[in-house]
Design brief:
binds zinc ion; two-stranded antiparallel ribbon; elongated; 2 helices; alpha+beta; 82 residues
């Protein structure tokens, strides 16, 4: 009685690429790191969330598009969306 071979080579998969490409593949698979929201005009990090186009339905505000606006710029009379 002979043992069955435990391992066998699977055809169809190409050989691993260069080490650099392996690193790139790994980095691409990683989730994007969280970054803090910062105003591109004044550099402020304080924001207000606003809603544009909200519908009043049965006495309740529904829908609308959210937008982040820089507080620092808003105080200067400028509307900078982030
Ligand atoms: Zn700003």
């Amino acid at each position: 009685m002979t043992d069955k071979p435990r391992f066998h080579v699977v055809d169809g998969t190409k050989a691993p690429d260069t080490p650099a490409e392996e690193v790139r593949k790994r980095v691409r698979a990683m989730p994007k790191p969280a970054t803090m929201v910062q105003c591109h005009r004044c550099g402020g990090r304080e924001v207000i969330e606003t809603k544009i186009g909200v519908l009043m339905k049965n006495g309740k505000p529904t829908g609308g598009t959210k937008a982040l606006i820089c507080v620092g710029c808003l105080l200067k009379g400028e509307r900078v969306t982030l």
